[in-house]
Amino acid sequence: SDNARGLAALLAVAEAIVTTRLPTARPILFAATVGEEGSGDLRGVKHLLNGKREGGNGKPAGFIALDGAGLERVVHRALGSRRYRVTFRGPGGHSWAAFGVANPANAVGRAAALLADLPAPGAPPAPRTTCAIVRLGGGTALNSIPQEAWIDLDLRSEDPKALAQLDVTVRAALDRALDDENRRRTPATPLLGLDVRLVGDRPSGITPRTHPLVQVAVAANRALGRDAELAAASTDANVPIALGIPAIALGAGGRAGDAHLTTEWYENTDGALGIVRALLVTLATAEVQ
Prior knowledge:
By secondary structure, the chain is α+β, with helices and mostly antiparallel strands.
């Protein structure tokens, strides 16, 4: 469903508008992007909007992302994130003969424990801010101290200042893990090194709930007899929002679950309503004549 459903809905909306030859005051560009998920870092939509944020004909009047299933949510707040590959490196060696050298795997464990113990996000109105360890690995053999071990981190917040502060806190925890492991090594053996590499940077921002684009989406839900839930998420809409382009993300109808797992599923219950909603919002924004 994430995001085959969005692509199917985009094609259905485009086909409906082309087939009916509905005239609009504004041109409509239908685009299917790549790299929205994970390490793709929104590269498709970043390429699409590169240089398109100035005045004149180049600036879109609005941007609508069709993302996944569902009908209630209207995403108008862009959830920002920073993703890091964190690597500890050391001399490695035989697991018996070299025992006592600084161990990158130990440092990863220390870092994981420190990050897991970070204070929980404050209650509203404080912005929700999270740090998740999403992958880890290292080592080459069962009887060898690794020369390298790594973790991947996903830091998120709706608020750019809160995200920046979390970044500082996380880096301090990583430095502490490095220092703790180096302090425990056998004297005169090499120190561990630490490399923190940014692999993803998604901007945050907001299209105000009072903006006509958001209000049109809410009205479309109302016309379909559904409540609208104003929400935050990380989608292709992050990029236009950060560029000052009014943008929202909409589910394309139906039900889904187990997102980002191999067991992800989709059920086409009321799927047509998602396409109708997308069509209504698109035509209203393009000012159908």
